[in-house]
Amino acid sequence: MPAVRIGTRASALARTQTGHVADALVALGCPAVETVHVRTEGDVSTAPLSSLGGTGVFVTALRDALLDGRCDVAVHSFKDLPTAAAPVLRIAAVPVREDTRDVLCASGGRTLADLPAGARVGTGSPRRAAQLRAARPDLEVVDLRGNVDTRLGRVTSGDLDAVVLARAGLARLGRLEAVTQTFGPDLMVPAAAQGALAVEVRADEADPALLAALAALDHRTSRLEVLAERAVLAQLEAGCAAPVGATAWIDEGRSPEGGTGPVLHLRAAVVAVDGRRAVHREASAPLPAPAADPSAATDHPDDAAVAATLGAGLAEALLDAGAADVADLRAAR
Ligand SMILES: NCc1[nH]cc(CCC(=O)O)c1CC(=O)O
């Protein structure tokens, strides 16, 4: 049986993420897995992200490698994937996701509240910049890109007072010691799908060992949370640079109404890039309990449909509250 070839970008974060998935596939019964390195426009170019144009600069080259048959599996940071489905490809697994939150990495162990007026804080994300300005209008937000090490280096060198990053990336790279504050959703609503991976294959992939391993790698809770979050973006028709956050979590226990099944909670925000206006909305929906006997579950709406409907409905609530006037939702840099 030929080895499963798993494509990865060259960055340390991408290689770490791919390595975890490769190890998991082997543990779940894939006989042999080899890694194929793929260079993407986002890695090769040193131009600001703003000039690279459109969604998916980190994604297209990896998908091309999958479509060309240079690899059989592609591992993406899910939040980097455009919401539109890719024809002829399929997301076959969403592994258990990491922490979804954003963090501050500041010099001197500082939190956001400790930073002096005018402190320079780096981020390349309009969503993070908008929420930073909403919390601390006095800060100077500095545009930033590059890999995680480069960004942290701007703080170590003293060039910046702090940077904002995804906790998940730092966790995967073993760099959590750099974190000086983890932001709750009242301070910063995370990006849709932050902390999650998308494991993609060709839609006609037929290797039974690979398909079985991917099915076992898939984590229902993570998949549904991400589905709800991305449904918000899709319904808003949000561009990749729109200052929109969306975060979902599943409470497996009792619902506040006294029900017994799992409940999907969702919170989303659209924030003006100057931080002066914001719309926040929350909603939740009971999920059909995972059926002990799947054939008995036919009365329940499909759990994916519940997640998608919750996300779309929350987007409509944001729009009703004026989200389209608060920020340019189509912004694609
Ligand atoms: N846009 C780059 C990117 N894509 C995924 C992550 C972090 C890991 C994740 O969110 O899964 C990062 C870096 C960051 O936002 O700090």
UniProtKB/TrEMBL annotation:
<keyword id="KW-0808">Transferase</keyword>
<feature type="domain" description="Porphobilinogen deaminase N-terminal">
    <location>
        <begin position="4"/>
        <end position="206"/>
    </location>
</feature>
<keyword id="KW-0627">Porphyrin biosynthesis</keyword>
<feature type="domain" description="Porphobilinogen deaminase C-terminal">
    <location>
        <begin position="224"/>
        <end position="284"/>
    </location>
</feature>
<dbReference type="GO" id="GO:0006782">
    <property type="term" value="P:protoporphyrinogen IX biosynthetic process"/>
</dbReference>
<comment type="similarity">
    <text>Belongs to the HMBS family.</text>
</comment>
<dbReference type="InterPro" id="IPR022418">
    <property type="entry name" value="Porphobilinogen_deaminase_C"/>
</dbReference>
<comment type="function">
    <text>Tetrapolymerization of the monopyrrole PBG into the hydroxymethylbilane pre-uroporphyrinogen in several discrete steps.</text>
</comment>
<dbReference type="InterPro" id="IPR036803">
    <property type="entry name" value="Porphobilinogen_deaminase_C_sf"/>
</dbReference>
<feature type="modified residue" description="S-(dipyrrolylmethanemethyl)cysteine">
    <location>
        <position position="240"/>
    </location>
</feature>
<protein>
    <recommendedName>
        <fullName>Porphobilinogen deaminase</fullName>
        <ecNumber>2.5.1.61</ecNumber>
    </recommendedName>
</protein>
<dbReference type="Pfam" id="PF03900">
    <property type="entry name" value="Porphobil_deamC"/>
</dbReference>
<dbReference type="Pfam" id="PF01379">
    <property type="entry name" value="Porphobil_deam"/>
</dbReference>
<dbReference type="GO" id="GO:0004418">
    <property type="term" value="F:hydroxymethylbilane synthase activity"/>
</dbReference>
<dbReference type="InterPro" id="IPR022417">
    <property type="entry name" value="Porphobilin_deaminase_N"/>
</dbReference>
<comment type="subunit">
    <text>Monomer.</text>
</comment>
<dbReference type="InterPro" id="IPR022419">
    <property type="entry name" value="Porphobilin_deaminase_cofac_BS"/>
</dbReference>
<dbReference type="GO" id="GO:0005737">
    <property type="term" value="C:cytoplasm"/>
</dbReference>
<dbReference type="InterPro" id="IPR000860">
    <property type="entry name" value="HemC"/>
</dbReference>
